[in-house]
Amino acid sequence: MQTLALNWKYFDLNELKQLYGAIQIDRFWLLKATGIGLSTFSLLYLAKIWHSYQFFKKRGIKTPPIEFIFGNVRQTFRNKNISEQLYEWTKNYGKVYGFFEGHQPVLVTSDIDIIQNCLIKQASNFAARKKTHLNPRDSSPYVDLFIAKNSQWKRMRMVMNPTFSSAKLRELSPVLINCADRLIDVLDKETDKPVNVAQFFKRFTMDSIWNCAFGVDINIQYERESEYFIKCEKIFKDFSDLNFLSYLSDYCHEFREIIVDLIIIFNRFLGLFIDIRNLMPFYWLRVKIKDLIKFRKNSSAEIKRKDYIQLLLDANEEFKRENNYSNIKKYMTDVEVESNLILFMLAGYETTSNTLSNSCFVLATKPDEQIKLFNEISSMFHLNSELNADNVQDLKYLDLFIKEVLRVYPIGTLIRRCTKATNVNGIDIPYDTPIAFDVLSVHGDPDLWGPVDPGVFYPERHETKRHPLAFLGFGAGPRNCIGMKFALIELKIALIKLILNFEFIKSDISMHNRLQFEEGIVRTAINGVTVILKKRQNSQ
Fold first, then answer.
1. 386 falls in which pLDDT band (50, 70, 90)?
2. Which residues contact 104 (CB under 8 A, 6 or more apart)?
3. 240 part of a folded domain
C-alpha cells in the first residue's frame, strides 16, 4: 500500500486556482461565525455561573444576598476588612454559611468541631492555601512553604523545622536583644510627645529578620531612607492593594492560572526593555536574595553560621550531591531556597510589628495591665539583669498578655483549600473548594472563652484549659505557623525592653479606646498606633 507523502514544493498554487478557482473568504460569514462562537461561549459560561450559585442551596447552607457575576466580592472589597465582614455575617447567618467570590463558593465556619475536623483530623484533605492571583501554579518551581501542598510541603517543612528549634532560638537571642536595644535607642529621641510607634516596629522586625535569618546587618532602624525599608513596604502595599488583577481572578477563577502565566510572560517581556527591579520591588528583593545566596555559597566555612539561610543552603547542597534525589527526604532546589527566604522575610514583617503596635495600644489604654507587666518584668530582672531566651519564658503574665492581644486582635482570617473531596460534619466539600475559618468569631465566642466576657481584655482567661482550637493566633494543625516560636521570643524581648524603659500614655489620637482596622494580607490598624512615651527612671 502506497503512502502519500505531502511535499509542499510540489504544490503549484496557480494550478490549484485553475482547478478550483480562487478561494474567497466571506468576511460577513467570518464575522457571523465569530459572533456565534462568542455568544455560545458566553451563554455556556453564564450557565456555569448560574449553576455555581446553586452550590450552597443544594447543601441547605445560608448565604448573604449575592449579585450575579459579582457574587459577594463588591461587599467584601468595599468593606476592606474581610475578617470583620465575616464576623458580621456570622452574627446574621450562624456558625456555618457561605459566600461567593465571583461565582466561586467559599464555605465559612466558626464551628469549633468543623474547624478541628478540617485542621486536625482531616488535615491531609485540606492541605493547601486558597489560590490568589499572586500564586504560581502548583507545579511551578517558585512555590514556597506557604502555598506548597502534599509531599512538596512535607519535604520543605522537614528542612525548615530545625531553624525554629529552642536551641536555635537560644543562639539567636543575643541578636534579637541587640535589635531591641537599637529600637530603644531610636525611641529615646521620641519621648514626651505623640509618636506613631507602628513605623518603628516595622523597622525593628525587619532588622531582626535580616540579622537572624540572613546574617546581614542593614542598619534599617537608624537609616530613615533605607532602600530596604522603602522597597519592602512597597512590596507589602502591592500585595495588599486590590487591583484589576485581583478582581479579575475572583470573577473568573477558572482562568486564574492563565492570568498568572500571562503576568509572568508580560514581566519577562518588560524586562527586555527596562530594569524591572525599579518598577517592581519584588524583583529587586529576589535579586538581593540571589546575591546573598551567592555570597554565602562562596564564603569560607569559618564565617558561615547555622542560621536560616545556611540550613536551607545545606539542604540545597544535599540535593545537588544526590543524582536520584527521590531517595532523600530533606532537600531544596535553588529556586525553592530563594522563594522560602523571601517568604520568611515577608511573613514575619507586618505580623509581628502589628502585634507590637496592638500591644502598645493596650498598654496605653489599660494602665493596670502596664503596671502588672512592669512589676513582673522588673522583679525578674532585678535579680537577674541578663536577658536571654530562657528567662523570658519565666515571665508568665507576659505570656498571657501576648496571647490575649492575639486573641482580641488576630492578624487575619485562616483559609484552607480542599485538596481531596470529602465530607465534614455532614457537609459535602468538593475538591478545590476554599473554606474560611472566622477567627474573630471563634476568639469572641463566650462558650469557648467565658465566663468573663470575651469582649473584655483579660489575660488571666488563658490560665484556664480551653478547647485546643479555641485559640487560632498562629493557626492550628500541621500547617500552623512555622515561625511561631521565633515570633513569640521576638515579641517578648521587644516588650520587655519597651516596658522597662518607657511608660505608655494615651494620646489624644488614641482616646477613643478602640482600634480601627483595614485588611490586606494582614489586619493593620488604620493610621498606625499613636501613644506618648515617657522615659522611666533607672531604665535599662
1. confident
2. 52, 71, 250, 253, 434
3. yes
Q: Is residue 289 part of a domain?
A: yes
Q: What secondary structure does DSSP assign to 42-94, as a single string?
A: HHHHHHHHHHHTTHHHHTT------BTTTBTHHHHHHHT-HHHHHHHHHHHH-
* pLDDT tens readout for residues 259-303: 777 777 776 776 666 666 566 778 888 888 888 888 888 877 656
Q: Are 174 and 201 members of one domain? A: yes
Question: Is the same domain home to 84 and 189?
Answer: no
Shared domain for 210 and 288, answered yes or no, is yes
Give the pLDDT band of residue 510 (cuts 50, 70, 90). low
The confidence score (pLDDT) of residue 1 equals 43
Residues with Cβ within 8 Å of residue 423, at least 6 apart in sequence: 429
Residues 425 and 524 in one domain: no
For the annotated binding site for heme, the residues are 481
Structural domain span for residue 425: 53-139+412-472
- Cell numbers representing residue 13 in the block: 498554487
- Residue 435 in grid coordinates: 473554606
Q: What is the CATH number of the domain that holds 439?
A: 3.30.43.20
Left (φ > 0), alpha (ψ -120 to 50) or beta: where does 445 sit? beta
Within-domain flag for 424: yes
pLDDT digits over 443-472, tens only? Answer: 999 999 999 999 999 999 999 999 999 999
Which three three-digit cell numbers place residue 297?
555559597
Q: For strands 427-429 and 517-519, give the pairing.
A: unpaired
Residue 429 sits in the same domain as residue 517: no
523-525 vs 517-519, strand pairing mode: antiparallel
Q: Is 23 inside a domain boundary?
A: no
Residues in CB range of 230: below 8 A, 6 or more apart? none
**Residues placed in the known binding site:** 481
pTM of the model: 0.86
Please list the residues that pair with 109 across neighbouring strands. 96, 437
User: Three cell numbers at 416?
Assistant: 484552607
